[in-house]
Design brief:
This protein has ten helices and ten strands. The chain is of the alpha/beta class. A six-stranded mixed beta sheet has the order 6-7-8-3-9-10, sandwiched between helices. It is globular. The model has no long low-confidence stretch (mean pLDDT about 95).
């Protein structure tokens, strides 16, 4: 890859004395979806959170090697973490709307960023809700509490909140695992559409989901990135026996 948007080189991460990631080499190109798969505790969410330094919030974490976003090392002393997290949006497993109105949930990041122009805020809220395929369902109840929305709507609202601050990369940590099949399908369609404008990395336990939405799939096992390739190759002709055993259900 000549110009990856997201990259890890010789990257190791430790929680105290315990090593969670081992010598990770990874790249993701612009406007692609990469799925991270593997058993629980294998390091996929840990690597995901390394790209916007969410792991900084955990005591005793230390890293060696490099993780890069838009060709800048995220652990460089010159990096402003707040600015990094604007570039690298995050959507969590469980929808986490703020106890505010639907409108204010999406506007929140803009206000924190110092934007006070009402017309600009309104414009961005509407465009973000449209991008997240939620506008038609909420346009007449923007002043109502976000907590009144269904789980699937709340997750799309969280995606809209993420989009409002115009990231270039979106990290998603099992964004549909708490949702019913219909809501999951809507989230998957949305992820696929967002690829046109964003680079997306998604952690999922659902291998069918990885096969449906991603361009590339990375298989993790016990803190190592075992194999990363085009999704079709990973699911039909993996090079590593451990990948094959996981895909075919022999362990995991």
């Amino acid at each position: 890859m000549s110009n990856p948007k997201v990259e890890a080189k010789d990257f190791n991460l430790f929680y105290g004395d315990s090593q969670a990631l081992k010598d990770i080499q990874f790249q993701a190109e612009a406007n692609t979806i990469t799925a991270f798969i593997g058993p629980s505790g294998c390091g996929k969410s840990t690597l995901l959170r390394s790209f916007n330094r969410m792991n900084d919030l955990i005591p005793g974490v230390r890293t060696t090697g490099t993780t890069m976003v838009n060709n800048i090392s995220v652990y460089d002393k010159s990096v402003n973490v707040d600015e990094l997290r604007k570039q690298v949006g995050m959507v969590f497993q469980k929808p986490n709307p703020f106890p505010k109105s639907i409108f204010e949930n999406v506007a929140y990041g803009l206000r924190v960023d110092g934007i006070s122009d009402k017309h600009l805020i309104e414009e961005k809220v509407i465009s973000s809700l449209k991008q997240s395929a939620l506008w038609d369902e909420v346009k007449d109840k923007l002043k109502k509490s976000a907590n009144a929305l269904s789980g699937g709507q709340q997750q799309r609202l969280c995606i809209a909140r993420c989009l409002a601050i115009e990231p270039s990369i979106i990290l998603m940590d099992e964004p549909a695992s708490a949702l019913d099949p219909i809501s999951t399908s809507k989230i998957e369609e949305l992820i696929y559409e967002l690829k046109n404008q964003y680079t997306i990395i998604i952690v999922t336990h659902n291998m069918q989901q990885a096969a449906r939405v991603s361009d590339r799939t990375a298989f993790f096992y016990m803190g190592e990135l075992i194999e990363c390739d085009e999704t079709k190759t990973i699911f039909t002709n993996p090079k590593n026996i451990r990948t094959q055993n996981y895909i075919t259900g022999k362990f995991g």
